[in-house]
Amino acid sequence: RNVLLKVKDLETTFFTEDGRVPAVDHIDFHINEGEILAIVGESGCGKSVTSLSIMGLVPSPPGKITSGQILLGELDLTKQSEKQMRKIRGKEVAMIFQEPMTSLNPLYTIGNQLTEAILLHNKKMKKKEVASKVIEMMKLVGLPRAEELMKDYPHQLSGGMRQRVMIAMALLCNPKLLIADEPTTALDVTIQAQILKLMKELNKQFRTAVLLITHDLGVVAEVCERVVVMYAGQIVEEAPVGEIFKNPQHPYTKGLLQSVPDMRYKKDSLYSIKGNVPKPGSIQMGCRFAPRCDYATERCITENPPLYELGEGTIHKSRCFLQETEGIGIAERVAEG
Ligand code: SF4
Ligand code: MG
Fold first, then answer.
1. 337 assigned to some structural domain
2. Are residues 250 and 318 in contact, defined by beta-carbon separation less than 8 angstroms?
3. Residues with CB under 5 A from ligand 2 (ion)
4. CATH number assigned to the domain comprising residue 197
5. What's the ipTM?
6. What are the pocket residues of ligand 1 if the criterion is a CB atom closer than 6 Å to any ligand atom?
7. Is the pLDDT of residue 8 over 80?
8. For atom 6 of ligand 1, which residue has the closest CA?
9. For atom 5 of ligand 1, which residue has the closest CA?
10. Pairwise CA distance, residues 244 & 240, whole Å
11. What is the CA radius of gyration of the chain?
């Protein structure tokens, strides 16, 4: 399959009163055309900053992309002006967020906002054509009685329906990539499942690649093909979804799996990984997971583990010294000092 988006050595830094904080610390990954890739991790691991970096929406100041490339085909998104990014957003790459209320304008009707979303990138389209496109898309995302719903305001809709509106809006310009940042976190479990099913169906139908950002491995199991696990700004594991569940390597991934609130993985008590994600930038030396890791040794505290590559046939990477006993190669050398 063709690569759609390639993130190379991306570093996104926040310049704060406490100093230079690399929220995303030299990460590499790619998304294929039509693929659903998940980035997983607890909050504060750099997932959202990664997606904002792709969208050109890192709040600046204090944030800034300080190294690397984000290649959409030949185009390096890190080199585009805000004006150029405005053309790319929505048309090439669209994004939906956890709480649709923050992205929908409470003062305009649903119909109004969906119409605007089309007109933004298709100024010459005829009114009638726009309206029929909006209604068609609303039906596709499972919004009933579309004609009437167009006259409603966002607050008149349920959370699940608002997220469907956001998905419709995101897909109206037929983007190549949809970034979904915790799209179902604010919804109750039944609605969550429906929205995930919808995203998967739309991915099949339109071949829109999806970058799903989530803290919830349960969500990942439902829809994704490949998983990237992030911890403290770094990628600590990457593998096809089946491998992540059957053969997880990194102690952090294992911890996340044990805390999935799902009968299949739950033991008798609800497990949670001890301790907290370190404040970005607070750990300078050694493995960032060491303070929380049951397997940590002396070496882990002083030496930063590289990303080991262990799969044959499939790509499976893990950033943990435990790989050295069975590891096959090193995917990346960590620059010393
Ligand atoms: Fe744990 Fe050491 Fe592996 Fe880090 S390198 S995850 S501290 S065993
Ligand atoms: Mg987040």
1. no
2. yes
3. 48
4. 3.40.50.300
5. 0.95
6. 251, 287, 289-290, 293, 295-296, 300, 305, 320-322
7. yes
8. 320
9. 320
10. 6
11. 21
* Residue 73 CA to ligand 2 centre (angstroms): 26
Mutate to test the pocket of ligand 1, among 235, 303, 308, 320 (most ligand atoms within 8 A of CB): 320
**Gap from CA of 287 to ligand 1 centroid (Å):** 6
pLDDT in tens, 37-93: 999 999 889 999 999 999 999 999 999 999 999 999 999 999 999 999 999 998 899
Q: Please report where in the chains the tokens 């039509």 appear, as a residue.
A: 34
Q: Is the dihedral of CA 289, 324, 22, 81 positive or negative?
A: negative
Question: Edge to edge, what strands does the sheet with 19-32 contain?
Answer: 19-32, 3-16, 63-72, 75-76
Which residue has its alpha carbon closest to ligand 1 atom 3? 320
Give the DSSP H/E element, type plus range, for residue 75.
strand 75-76
Task: Judge whether 235 lies within some domain.
Answer: yes
What is the domain extent for residue 304? 3-332
Counting from 1 in the atom list of ligand 1, the atom nearest the Cα of 294 is: 1
Read off the DSSP letter of residue 165.
H
Distance 241 CA to ligand 2 centre (A): 21
Instruction: Tell me what pLDDT residue 271 has.
Output: 58
Domains contained in the chain, number: 1
Cα–Cα distance for residue pair 199/213, rounded to 1 Å = 13
Mutation to probe ligand 1, out of 237, 249, 289 (largest number of atoms < 8 A from CB): 289
Residues 6+ apart with CB under 8 A from 172: 114, 117, 118, 133, 134, 137
Ligand 1 center–CA 295 separation, angstroms: 6
Please give the sequence-ordered ranges of beta strands (E in DSSP) within the chain, or none if there are none.
Answer: 3-16, 19-32, 36-40, 63-72, 75-76, 93-96, 177-181, 209-214, 226-231, 234-240, 307-309, 317-318, 329-332
Q: What is the pTM of this model?
A: 0.90
Note whether residue 259 is domain-resident. yes
State both tokens at 66.
């300080």
In a domain, 135, yes or no: yes
